[in-house]
Amino acid sequence: MKSKVITGIMLMLFLTITLFVAVPMEAEPDVGDPVKIAVVGPQGWVQWDGMWVGAKMAQEKINLGPDGVEGTADDGIVVGGVSHLIELKAVDSHAVPEPDPSAGSAELLAALEWGADFVVGGFRTECVAPMRETFVEYAKNKEATTGYAPLWFIAGASTDELIDCGGYYCKACVRDDYESYKYVFRVTPMSSTWLVKQIAMFLRFFILPKMAKIYGGNVIEVLPTGDPKYEFPIKTYIVCEDLTWNEVLGAVLAGRDWPGCQTIVKIGVTLPNPYQTPPSDEPPNRCLLGPNCEMVGYARTHALTPNFGPVFEDIDATGARLIIHVFSAVTGVDFIKMWRERMTEAVCVGINVESQMQEFWDTAEGKCEYETFLSSVGTATPIIPGLTDALWYEYKEESDDILTDWYGSSMPSTYPIYTFWGAYDALISLDESIEEYGTWPIPASKLVPLIEQTDRLGVLGKFKYAGPNPTLDFDLATPGQQPYPYLDENPNMTGTLHDVYVDNDALTSAWPSGYTRAQITQWQDGRLGVVRPLDQPFSSKWRIPPWMYSLGDVDLNWDGKVDMTDVNEVALAFGSYYGRPNWDVEADVSADGKVDIDDVVAIAIEYGESVTPWPLE
Hints:
Type 1 dockerin domain, alpha/beta, 15 helices, seven-stranded mixed β-sheet
């Protein structure tokens, strides 16, 4: 009996040993020093929320590795078999409610002394510019003493001079002083020059001609594609919050110099006026937006406590039919609500950062319907199908927990804003670059060129860094022209610029290159539809407010009546969607991505209706 027991015990021990040998154990990771990243932004504002949630989501993705399991060999940034986990440190830039760059610089310096290898974020030029000086001074000293230096990836501030003054010798940017400023890159948004170029081209070659048709214009201006456009000066009014980032942007759109005429003061230095003064024989209000535009007003309002009443009274008095609005702060909510409450007979097209939030629809009580503006994405836009749209919903799922942990009180789930996409992709790109390089840490002399060579598929399209910043020359819209001069053509330029590369197709309604560009979106029935570019599966028809033109959706050729011409256009496109030969976005009356019975019914309901007198007054 005893021998049987002993035999059984021995058999169990054998099976146990065999089991452990047969099932290999996951190797414990060899953990090295962490990669430390400081996230800097306007804590308490939505721009900060986007940065922080983006950084936390990317941190989790990288630290868990491809298998999504903690404690395995693929955790973190893995180089040479060593796992380097991401650590984050929050830095308040003290940009809100009133900018306090000294306090922001002090917090940033503390983060650098904590050992930050990278800095991500930065919103509001009034703070980012002086903080940048603190940063580059630290980075230069660090490289001089150790050979290593941190890099800053700006995700939130668009002012050109933070990276590239455009060649006007500010002596304080990557172009003019590469050795000092080579540590600074920008990942989002694109520069103010590119923002104004994109919105201006959309206005000049789409909105203004379409409105001119309503108001009885004549063919005069032709796009590079050969499509006829129409002349009829549309009275236009610009409203900008009074902040540094849009000082030049607003003035250039308005077709005028800014105060000082020949010079401006930006970031502590005096720059020559980089934009051409309109010729003496050409009115200033025709110098940028073309012959369809007549500029009748330009208001700059306080960023926090504006009084919009007099502004709207002036808009009404001038008879403006187009408002170009430019806001980054919360007052964009008040502006757009008042626009709708007054039923202002002017379309609103511009930049409104708060309106990029999906939640803005509820905040504005739906009064933002028909507002049109630059944005990173529309509602769950599948720019990269299965990635961009998936991240949109993942943000929604995770933001409440992340922000509740951060603020220490219950926070509702939200949807992403542009600073999320920049912060998230900056961390993912670093993971890719360092792992491809194969060692960590990397000396600054190797790290800067490594980042400069970035050319990858990001979350919003293809991404790389740009050559010199082009001027506001609208001939660049002509096919075949090169928007980026070669570096050796500029004797004052050394090294590679560190700004977002934007292909020339960003100025048109098509997007063949796939490189990052702004999407122009419009609030349509509670969702953000992308109305430019127009050649993508997610593109939507631009809609004019019905209180301006009640037949705007169904009068497809904009001739003042709904007749067989409009019926035929829908019939020819019936059953189509993006990619089909007969697809016609204008025939998609309901803006739902397909031409079907809903569009036929919409035309049928209004068939025979017309506007009298015509043209509209």
